[in-house]
Amino acid sequence: MNPNLTREVYAPSGAMRLLETAAAWTLAILWMLPLLYAVWTAFHPSEFSARFEPMAPVTLENFTRAWDAAPFARYFLNTFALVTLILGSQLILCTLAAYAFARSDFAGSGVAFALVLAQLMIMPDVLIVENYKTMNKLGVLDSIPAIALPYVASAFGIFLLRQTFKIVPKELDDAARIEGAGPLQILLKVYVPLARPVYLAYGLVSVSYHWNNFLWPLIVTNSVESRPLTVGLQVFSSTDQGIEWSIICAATLITSAPLLIAFLLFQRQFVQSFMRAGIR
Amino acid sequence: MRRSSATLNAWLLLLPAMTLLALFTHWPALATFIDSFYSTPRPRRGSAFVGLENYRQIIDDPIFWQALTNNLFFAVGTIPVSIALALVMALWVNDRIAGRTLIRMAYFTPTVLPMIAVANIWLFFYTPQYGLLAQVLSSFGGASHNWLGSKDTALACVTIVAVWKEAGFFMIFYLAALQQISPHLGEAAALEGASRFYFFRRVQFPLLMPTTLFVLINAVINAFRTVDHIIVMTRGGPDNATSLLLFRIYELGFGFWDTGLAAALTVVLLVGLALTALAQYIFLERRIHYR
Lengths: 280, 291
What we know:
CATH superfamily of the largest domain in chain A: MetI-like
Largest sheet of chain A: none
Strand content of chain A: under 5%
Shape of chain A: globular
Distance between the termini of chain B: 39 Å
CATH topology of chain B: MetI-like fold
Structural class of chain A: mainly alpha
Strand content of chain B: under 5%
CATH architecture of the largest domain in chain A: Orthogonal Bundle
Number of domains of chain B: 1
Number of helices of chain A: 15
Largest interface: A-B, 100 and 103 residues
CATH class of chain B: Mainly Alpha
Order of helices and strands of chain B: HHHHHHHHHHHHH
Structural class of chain B: mainly alpha
Helix content of chain B: over 70%
Distance between the termini of chain A: 28 Å
Radius of gyration of chain A: 24 Å
Radius of gyration of chain B: 24 Å
CATH topology of the largest domain in chain A: MetI-like fold
Number of strands of chain A: 0
Number of strands of chain B: 0
Largest sheet of chain B: none
CATH superfamily of chain B: MetI-like
Oligomer: heterodimer
CATH class of the largest domain in chain A: Mainly Alpha
């Protein structure tokens, strides 16, 4: 009754085990190499950015210079507003839609569900030209809502929550109804609390996706007031004035730091969330 | 009566999501299709119906064929390699090797970093003379090479970045699936005297098929929508050697403001994606009948 029996029966042993461990570690170091390289460059004066001397002086100057060279504080604020707006609206819209799909077999539910799932193939990332026209007509170009709008009704979120709501026991639903709860009350008091781990998983996936998203924000934004971090970093590092690599590396780390730190602190939750979001 | 009120309720719940989906998914998909038959509006003249003219121009455009070939190369380079790597990573991390938590973290870290940020790091990595790659090679006596500036190596370089970025992400799904395989199977196989490789080939791998399908669909979609690093590292160059379909759409739509051509190319990309999804579904569905 040992849960690790498989691993023990077929775990590598002896020389094989040594070889496998060595290979796994080699790949891990290779995988981390670009990041370690960026960390080295960012924390040392620029003359050491391509020279690896263990005694090279450590400095934070690259970070302060990068921070002063571009409005990163504003970009942070924009990205923060963007992911909050997207996640907040996604949670509300997807919960309502998922509830409709999970609970009742209503007229047109099959067609409606197919229309939702269509978004998994026809992604907003590909429809950039038409969505740009729409934003132009709505007069919201160069604003944070313009970045958010195409992603708010998320087929992935609706699908994920629908699957979760479907396995909520019917008895709980009936009991709440007998006590006189209306449909929305049942949703809030019965379904939503039971789906909490799925909300966490979806939230982490959504935040990391939109924190990192680049092409669409690059297209619809045009000013410091609406640019998220990713676009700000690109504008900063692609100017032709020949910015030093050490400063670009520092800026790169600044941009990635919040997610990276959150990931290092909550590794287990991250990994489990991505797993949970993928399996259903 | 009861059913009709349930239907009304359900549609009310769906209304906000459906409105946004209609506005930003269904309508633009349809509009792309319609626009692909119209010429691009210019200041002096509006857009006019031109039939298949946009498609003809695309077919006559050597850059389209180059972008398509590049994209197929990019897909063939990223999909099997990242899936195979993901599987190997998952098998390793699933075994009790020393420091597996650290190793798992190392594999997964690229997933949480912005592509645009890591593309900057890789850009430096590939830089001739100063970059890490050039330094390692020169210490072995290799000549300096402009990896991203040369037509022969640029596409391979951006392909490697994409593999590096997504392999750890796919590993997670394999890891989850491996942990769900009942330990009794291993026990039984060992009693029958199956070798480790035989156990993997005949038990673990078939049981992982649904995961492989899921990962495969994701990998295919990624192969046609990952362009962030192209914009940072090469801008499609040198000489369109790294131009991918979505990058070409971006270039046509927002570089040349030729929305008619961009619409036609978007239709080509969407049809291509739909056909591959269908093919995968039909081909793989037949092999996954358990579960």
